[in-house]
Structures are given as C-alpha cells and as structure tokens.
Amino acid sequence: MPSFNPKNREGFGGRITIALYRIAQAVECLLRDRGKKQRLSPAQIQALLFLNYARPGVRTIGGLAYRLGVTSATSSGVADALEQKRLLQRRPLLEDERVVMLELTPEGRNEAERLEDVLDEIEAAVNALPETEQAALLRATQSIIRRLQAAGYVRVYEMCWGCQFFRKDLHPDDPRGPHHCAFMDAPLPEPHTYLECPDFVPLQP
Ligand code: SF4
Asked: Does the C-beta of 165 come closer than 6 Å to ligand 1?
C-alpha cells in the first residue's frame, strides 16, 4: 500500500495517492492565502461558497455542518463569525419558525463572488494538459470520488440536471416552478435547478 516513506513509494497507486495528497495541500494553502487577504478563515471561505450555491433548503446550521464535516456547535461558531462581519444573517423559516435559515447579506454575496477564482492556479495546471489527458484525468478522478463518497469520506453536491430525482417540465404551468424534485416531492423553479444539492444522485449511464 502507498506510504509516506519515499523508500516505499513504488508503483502507480502509491505515487498517485501522494500526488493527490499534495494537491489537497495546495488547496489548503490557496484557501489560507486568500483567507489572509479577505480576512476569512478557510472554514468561513467554505461556508460563504456553500451559502452562495447550495439549494435554499439546506442553508441551515445543520446543512453547513454536514457540508463542512463538523459538529453543529462548530458550524454555529462559523455562522456567528460571519454574522459579526455582516456577511450573513439568520432568518426563521416562514413555514416553520423553529427552522433557522442562513442567508448571505449583499456584502456576503460580494465576498463569496470575490472567492470565485481561489482555485485558478489548479485549474490553470489542468488546462495546461493536452485534452486527452484532461479527459482521462476527469474519468479517473470521478471514479476515485465515487468510491470515496460510497465510503463516506466525500460529500458530493451537484445541480439538478443529471439527477435521478429530477423531473423536467413536469408541471409547466405551476407558479412555484415548472420542474419537480421527486426526492423532496416539491416543485422546482428554474433558478434552483442550477444550485448545488447534497441529495443529488447521478442518472445511471
Ligand atoms: S434531489 Fe436531485 S432533483 Fe432534487 S433538488 Fe436535489 S439535485 Fe435537484
């Protein structure tokens, strides 16, 4: 099996695993550097990106905790810090006041949009590869992610298009939305179909 000891690092498996580890370190470093510039911790950066792109129903303390892989207390602490910076506000759900939604303020949305290019260095390195290598890398990394997801180490958030539960144009005249989510059994307005969802299940090939 792959090892951190360079003497034992033989074969593709070990070398690729260490390469992925180094890419993960680069991601951490990019988040830290950007955090220094924007006065945000890496967890606050991930929270802003989550709240900017996740579907509305999961923008809660629990949803944030699930996304960050932390406890509710830690998630609540991240939300408190963002609230103190006036980047986020808590709002009780109209239909059920016990549920508190986390909403980005206009300043929070601007801050999240300024983070869009945080992984540009990695994307530039990928774009420098020939297209055939990019295609092979995409297939390989997707396959690794599926396995890690099944083992519970990765949480994949995707948008509705391509999800097994998505029913396109099921009720085109419904004012709540023309599409339908069979998982939530609820209508979906068009803009929500482009948001990230933790309940996404890919269509079978
Ligand atoms: S479960 Fe699927 S269809 Fe429903 S909101 Fe999530 S991604 Fe969209």
From this structure: yes
| CA 130–ligand 1 middle distance (angstroms) | 34
Q: Is the CB of 50 under 6 A from ligand 1?
A: no
Gap between the Cα atoms of 140 and 96, Å rounded: 43
Distance 47 CA to ligand 1 centre (A): 20
What are the distances in angstroms from CA 199 to CA 9, 28, 125? Answer: 37, 26, 31
Q: 0.85 cut: is pTM over it?
A: yes
159 Cα nearest atom in ligand 1: 7
Residue 4, φ and ψ in degrees, nearest 5: -75, -15
Q: What is the pLDDT of residues 10-69, one digit of tens each?
A: 788 889 999 999 999 999 999 999 999 999 999 999 999 999 999 999 999 999 999 999
58 CA from centroid of ligand 1 (Å):
12
Give the model confidence (pLDDT) of 96-125 as tens digits.
888 899 999 999 999 999 999 999 999 999
In the 8-state DSSP scheme, what is residue 203?
A: P
DSSP letter string, 99-164: SEEEEE-HHHHHHHHHTTTTTHHHHHHHHTS-HHHHHHHHHHHHHHHHHHHHTTS----B-STTBT
